[in-house]
């Protein structure tokens, strides 16, 4: 389903970035991380669709008149599980996205102005997969511990302990989702300024990939700033932090895949124009449903010279 929702994004994305990045040893980290952004987009759409379908199932199960039967209880448990786990996964994906953007920004900024070998090895293709999965495991465990402590404080922990835990989680969330987002465009701005001044000395691929990451971080900051202003406007002062965290979590779940797509397609305006002008719905559906006709396969004929 996600491939049908974004048919152009995946094909252009993979071919263009892979082919361009192979030419640049300096930017060898880009293809792996940006391809992982594409995987994040697909996973986000699948998880959002799962949550939507589970909400419909829960509503249809609980809205029937009368008492809840024994056959409805497994469906309710399944629906709640299919809502909770994808929602938790989306929260982890959003935090991973913000952290990867920041780490890639720091790496590229240091490597651009201080081209030492130590920066090339950081987030390289060799250690990137293990590094990403370690971060995913850390964020999942962190969220599970937070949920467990939040529910356990009613029975085990005192209010002083839970207040300290809440302050710790709120501070960590603000640093990861607000402060780092603000620092990304700031760190990338010297790179973009240097590229504009020496554009005739740089390759198009070099400028393109840095522009992609810069505008992606700018879009993240713009959308985050808009939702923060909206939450501050509609919430009260005493519950501001709670509303701010809950609002940004919900907003990030909806906007993160859109931001990745907009920033990518914005840096590929020429390819997007060509795609839109040459797009044909008839051919599109013919390819999807296999109506393009079959290729006829003939046996290969070898001509043997006759010796007289």
Automatic annotation (TrEMBL):
A Pfam short name: 7TM_GPCR_Srz
The portions of this protein that span the membrane are 33-59, 71-93, 99-119, 131-152, 172-193, 214-234, 240-265
**From which domain of life does this come?**
Eukaryota
**Record flagged with keyword Manganese:** no
Return the InterPro entries for the record: 7TM_GPCR_serpentine_rcpt_Srz
Q: Which residues form a coiled coil?
A: none
Which keywords does this chain's UniProt record carry? Membrane, Receptor, Transmembrane, Transmembrane helix
The name of this protein is: Serpentine Receptor, class Z
